[in-house]
Amino acid sequence: MGAGMSIRAEHELHGRRKGRNIGVGLMLAGFVVLVMALTFVKITQIDFSQAPVNTGAPQQGASD
Amino acid sequence: MTDVTNTPATEYEAELGDYFALMKPRVMQLVVFTALVGMLAAPASVHPVIGFASILFIAIGAGASGALNMWWDADIDAVMRRTAKRPIPAGKVEPREALYLGVALSGLSVMMLALAANLLAAAMLAFTIFFYIVIYSMWLKRLTPQNIVIGGAAGAFPPVIGWIVATGTFSVEAWLMFALIFMWTPPHFWALALFMRSDYDDAEVPMLTVTHGRPLTRRHILAYTVLLAVLAIGTGFTAVGGYIYLTVAVVLNALFLVGAYRIWNRDEVQAEADSYLVERKFFRLSLYYLFLHFGAILIEASLRGWGLA
């Protein structure tokens, strides 16, 4: 065990900083996912009923 | 230069939990619950993702105002026993950090609520934050013994915001839920002020107990509880009420009235003799009171949703 080892040793502060950074990172990732989900929902909720085709029920095809 | 040797050994570096504590998580719980009830009791369905996002941003807005409140009130928090361990007086977070966090999260929550739900809900959230910080914390809290009555309004807005998320408009039922929290807050806090004896005196916050004395505070608790009981039971006959709500309201208000009567019917000598047992019980009951009333509103809304009521 050389004396140089202590320089590389991780200070307790590094651990806490790492924990904080991981926490912030996870929150940002969660925020991105939430905004994506919101965007998806908002886009799929747009009412296309003004279009001539009725999108409610599936059309009965001639092949049935 | 990120070497640890640059950091003085005595300097505390805040953890994520310290910033979370700035946001008053226990108040946030109440905000989340009442806003959720407001949203689900409204006669309009909300997409689950939009509902989740809206409640989250309302909670973040509430947390932001908590951080701003802690920034502004750091001086009195340091004096009061109940609040001395909050992150700023405990030296864990710099006041400036709380200010920046509060401002940033306020802006984020209002903007995101506008995008997720609607502009009116976002405007109400912005107004709530403004009301809590500027009108209550900065202006009236240290000025008038009616501070709690006015401050109660800030805590009463969440169900209204939840309702607006679902419907996009105001309505009588939303304001009834507002009134329930608004009328509940004064007896809840005055009971606390009675048994946290010297805290508010030391901090020179003009609580009713300090400015007008304890006997008058006891009378005020009884008066507000009577008005609250009329309002809470009356709500049972409106669109958000029903048999379940009415049963819960009658039982809880009877208990609450008995508690308030017992508080009114004794003096400081009696209270000190049993270490404010009656006041402490009343305070604990007040927590269940609000939770169960809103829980009953939620049950009634669910039953209506399933076509059972």
From TrEMBL, chain B:
Catalytic activity: heme b + (2E,6E)-farnesyl diphosphate + H2O = Fe(II)-heme o + diphosphate
Keywords tagged on the record: Cell membrane, Heme biosynthesis, Membrane, Transferase, Transmembrane, Transmembrane helix
Enzyme nomenclature, EC number: 2.5.1.141
Protein task: Converts heme B (protoheme IX) to heme O by substitution of the vinyl group on carbon 2 of heme B porphyrin ring with a hydroxyethyl farnesyl side group.
Membrane topology note: Multi-pass membrane protein
Lineage, highest ranks first: Bacteria, Pseudomonadati, Pseudomonadota, Alphaproteobacteria, Rhodobacterales
Native source species: Sulfitobacter aestuariivivens
GO terms (BP aspect): heme O biosynthetic process
NCBIfam families for the chain: cyoE_ctaB, PRK04375.1-2
Protein name according to UniProt: Protoheme IX farnesyltransferase
